[in-house]
Amino acid sequence: MNLKEQLKKVQNYFSPKIISEVNNQYVKIAKIKGQEVPWHNHENEDELFYIIEGELLMEIENETNRILKTGDLFVVPKGVNHRVSSIKECSIMLIETKSTKHTGNVKSAITKSIQDQSY
Amino acid sequence: MNLKEQLKKVQNYFSPKIISEVNNQYVKIAKIKGQEVPWHNHENEDELFYIIEGELLMEIENETNRILKTGDLFVVPKGVNHRVSSIKECSIMLIETKSTKHTGNVKSAITKSIQDQSY
Hints:
CATH architecture of chain A: Sandwich
CATH class of chain A: Mainly Beta
Largest interface: A-B, 27 and 27 residues
Low-confidence stretches of chain A: none
Shape of chain A: globular
Order of helices and strands of chain A: HEEEEEEE
Strand content of chain A: 35-45%
CATH topology of chain A: Jelly Rolls
CATH superfamily of chain A: Jelly Rolls
Structural class of chain A: mainly beta
Oligomer: homodimer
Number of domains of chain A: 1
Number of helices of chain A: 1
Largest sheet of chain A: 7 strands, antiparallel
Mean pLDDT of chain A: 93
């Protein structure tokens, strides 16, 4: 499968879709535009971000902000508070343990269940 | 980190380098040119291939050959015999459980230890 082809199926921002799995990890794609992701962390799970296209502002608590660009890869370690946003549309791939909740234990307007993340 | 920047550090073909980790998985990059990878499988581990640049011939036992292109993602399920090759240089990202041996239990001229796969 081609990631950019898969992205055509993603209709909504902040709505990760599961496209594959590897071992006990889900591979997801998502489109981000705006600042709707709340600060959150995943207590026991790292989260990998890969920028397919665009720029993503990665905020990590107590660290200097990072701007991730096309082709960049960044892993948020487990337990670390983070928040992502983008002014223009940004397309990302995520790799997360199957048990990972995409907004951690924080419930927000964008929070989706695993069912909602399946096609 | 940027994947294409990281690739500049990879000197040799068929020599995966660990660039990150997520949960119990290594993220590796590699350059492939030629047909030196033997048929092998990973008994208990899936293996994710992402094509950063180029074309990769993915052979799966008893399946039609696939040509993976830039931006394509493919997961070889555990236990499935496979072999990859490329006529021209192809750059890939791999995601594998830390315990995965890159040529399975097959020892070949290209087989590298985990130490050899670290910078």
